[in-house]
Amino acid sequence: MSSLAAVLAQAAPGLTAGPAAAAPTPTITVPDIEWTALLPILVLGLGAVLLLTLTSLARGTVTRSGYAIYTVLVATGAMATAAPLWGRVHAWDHLGKWELSPPYGPFSAVAGAIGVDGFSVFITLLIGVAVILGALLADDYLRREGIDGPEYYVLLLLSATGGVIMAMANDLIVLFLGLETLSIAVYVLAAIHLKRVQSQEAGLKYFVLGGFSSAFFLYGVAMVYGATGSTNLVQIKDLLAVKVPTHNALLLIGLGLMLVGLGFKVAAVPFHSWSPDVYDGAPSPVAAFMASGVKAAGFAGLTRAFLLGFGQFASDWQPVLYFLAAASMLVGAIVGITQTNVKRALAYSSINHAGFMLMALQAASPKGVTGLLFYLATYTFMTVGSFGIATLAGRTGDGHHDLADYRGFSRTNPALAGLFVLFLLGQSGFPLTSGFVAKFGSIAAAVDAGSWHLAVIGMVSAAISAFIYLRIIVAMYMAESDTEAAEKAPKAARIKVPFGAGLALVACALATIGFGILPNGLNRVAGEAEPVLVKEPVPAAASGADGAGLTGLDLTTIPTTPTTR
Amino acid sequence: MADLSAAYLGLSAALFAIGALGLIRRRNPLVMIMCVELMLNAVNLTFVTFGNMLNDAAGQAIVFFVLVVAAAEVVVGLGIIVALARRKPGLSADDMNVLRG
What we know:
The complex is a heterodimer of chains A (about 575) and B (about 100). Chain A is about 70% helix and about 0% strand. With about 575 residues, chain A is mainly alpha-helical. Chain A starts with a helix and ends with a strand. Chain B has one domain: Helix Hairpins. In chain B, about 75% of the residues lie in helices and about 0% in strands. Chain B has three helices and no strands. The longest helix of chain B has 30 residues. Classes of the chains: A mainly alpha (about 575), B mainly alpha (about 100). Chains A and B meet through α1, α2, α7, α8 and α11 of A and α1, α2 and α3 of B.
C-alpha cells in the first residue's frame, strides 16, 4: 500500500521538474515496480487484511489455535520471499534449484523509494522471527485471558508490515509511513486487553507519546526537505556530496528533530519515560514484540536515515548518539536495579540494551553495523524468552509480575525458572551466552571508533545491570515462597506450559546458547548484511532523471556553495 | 505580492510549538489528541511552504500522506479513549495513575 505512496511521491516532481515554460504538457513518468522486492511487505500486509476479511465472513468456525498457525505461516512466507532477495543482493547464481535473475547486487526499487540490500533483508527476517515468536506466545495467552480473536494477529502482521517498510525505506517519507503503520498497530496492541485498565492506560500513554514523537520526526523530515529539496536519501546523499549549504542550520535542526522522533521509538534516554509504563501495562506477549520487533525496526530507521543518508554529517550526529548511548546505558542499569516489578525491570534492561545498540551505531563503521545487527538478532531471542516467562508466570489476569510473586519459583516451576535464568544471564552478558558476544561486538566497535570513554561506560553499566537480573534469580531460587500452600505442595502451583509458548521458549533458549557458543555463523551473516544506498536503475524513457527533482534547489533560501566540506 | 514564505514558516513553527506545549500542559486526552493534530498540520504547512519555495510538487503531495496518517491516528486514539472512558468517566490524564511513572 505504501509503495503506492512512494510511487506518487516520486512521480510528482516530474510534474514541475523542468522550467515551467519549457514543458507545456507535463507528463508523469510511471516508475517500474520491482514486485519481487516488495513481496515480503505484500505478503505480510495482504496476509493481515485477508485474515481480517476471512474471519469476519466465517465467524466462529476457526479451529483452536487457527489464528496463530495462520500468522506463523504468513510470517514464514514473508521470510521465504525475503530469502531470494538475500541471494540476489550477494550475487548468487542460484538458490537451490532456482536460477536468480540479474541484476545482481543491492538495488533500489519503485523509483528509488525502496532499497533492497543485505541490511534490509536481515531486518526483514528478524521481524519475521519476532512475529512468529509473538504469535506462539499469544496463542494460549489470549484464550486464557478470554480475549481470543483475530484482532491481535491482524495487528501483529500489520505492525510487522510497517517494520519491514522501515527497514527497506530509501525515502524519508516512506520511512515515516512505515513508522506510522508500525506504531498505530502497536498502539492498539498495547490496549488490546480490554479487561485490564492498565492495558488501556498503557495504550493511551503510548499513543500520546508516540504521536508526539512522530510529529517531531515528520517536522525533521520537513526541515531536511526544505534544506535539500528532496526526501529521497539517495538524492540527498548525492546532493550533499557536491554541495553543502553554507548555513546548514536548517538541515541540522531537521536531523535533530528526526533523532528525537526515532529516539522515542527505540526508548533511548532521555526519551524513555513511556517505556516502563507501557511494557508494564501492555499484555506480556505485546511487550515481547515491542521489545524485539519494534526496536529492530526503530534501529533500522535510525541506521538508514543517519548512517546512510547523512553519513557525511557523522561528525555532527555522532556526539549526540554518544550522549544518548551513555545516558541509556547508565539510566537503564541504575534505575533498573531499584524496580520491584519484573516487567518494569525488564523494560529498564531493554533501555540499557538500546544504549549498547546506540553505542555500536555511533561508531558509524561497518563493524558498528555488524555489531548492531548481531546485538538485535540475539537480543530478540533473549527478550522474547524473558517476556515469554513473564507471560506464563503472570497467570490469569496477567497481574503477577511483582518480584514477590517469583519467590520460590524454582521449586514450583523448575523448568521455567531454569529457562528464565538462562535468558537473564544472556541479557547480563554472561560468557557462553549470545549476550556476551553481542556486548563484546558492540564494545569492540566503539573502541575501534576511538570512543574509549563510551566503551568504559558500557562495561560499567553491564556490571551494574547484572544486579537487575541477579535480583530476579535470587528471588526465584533463594527466597521462600509467600504462600505456604505453594511451599507444601509445589506441584499444585505448577504452571501448565502450553505447546506454542513452550516451543517459542525452547527456540529462544536454543538461540541464546547456540549463538553464544557458535557465534561465527550469525556474525558472518551480520557482517554481510551491510546497508548501502544504490541509485535507482534509471528507466530509459525518463528524461534527465538524474536528480531531476532537485533542479529547483537554486530557489531555496539557503545559499549553496560548490565547495565540499 | 510580497513573499510570505518566511511568515508561513514562522506560523507553522508557532503552531507546532503550541501543539507541543499543549500536549505537555493539558490534561484532557481529547485536547491532547487535538494537539497532536495541530503539530501534524503545522508540519503540513511547512511542507507546502517549502514545496512552493522550491517549486517542487513533492512538498504538496506529501501532505496527502500525512493527512491520511493523521486521520488513522485519530481513529485509533479515539478508540482507546472510548475504551478507557467506559471504565473511568470524566477521564483526565491525572487520573491515569494505575501505572507508576
